[in-house]
Specification:
With about 170 residues, the protein is mainly alpha-helical. About 70% of the residues lie in helices and about 0% in strands. Helix 1 runs parallel beside helix 3, helix 4 runs antiparallel to helix 6 and helix 6 crosses helix 7. The radius of gyration is 15 Å and the shape is globular.
């Protein structure tokens, strides 16, 4: 899990921060780590990990506090969003959100919602006003779809690797 943390931060900082498709879409692949944290772990632990991850991305991206705040808010709403799409029971207390554990439909709704929340926060904080609402919404939609597609691809690869090892 620590290796995934380091790899995703490095990929975000060294590659994804330098990509901007059609001057609208920025991929935020590092949030996959926050989505992948088990549902049953302490909320304080999730918030701390999310803040630390956002802080590291901010530190190397020269975006003071933007990713830290967005990651922390995303981590705070993660259980609520997850249980909006997955039934709450004893089986889901320690589950790791993934396509293989909750199914394609529930996971895709969860991942898309979390991507939308994160991207909306990032672009709203960066613009620091609602004056360019149309630009914020276009960038949020485009970045969310790109991030969502990459998260689904990464999750599929993670599941394929897990099945190949087993």
């Amino acid at each position: 899990m620590a290796l995934l943390f380091i790899v995703l931060v490095l990929v975000q900082v060294l590659i994804c921060n330098h990509i901007m498709l059609f001057n609208l879409a920025v991929p935020f692949v590092f949030i996959y780590f926050i989505l992948r944290l088990p549902v049953g772990i302490s909320q304080n632990m999730v918030l701390t990990i999310a803040f630390l991850m956002g802080f590291l991305v901010d530190l190397f991206s020269d975006t003071p506090g933007v990713n830290s705040l967005a990651c922390t808010v995303m981590a705070a709403v993660k259980p609520t969003v997850f249980y909006a799409y997955v039934a709450r029971d004893d089986k889901t207390k320690k589950i790791v959100p993934a396509i293989s554990t909750v199914g394609w439909q529930a996971y895709s709704k969860f991942a898309l919602t979390m991507s939308l929340i994160f991207c909306f926060l990032v672009f709203t904080i960066e613009f620091m006003s609602f004056a360019g609402v149309d630009e914020i919404l276009f960038m949020t939609a485009a970045s969310s779809l790109l991030t969502f597609a990459l998260i689904i691809a990464m999750d599929s690869l993670m599941n394929a690797n897990t099945k190949a090892i087993a």
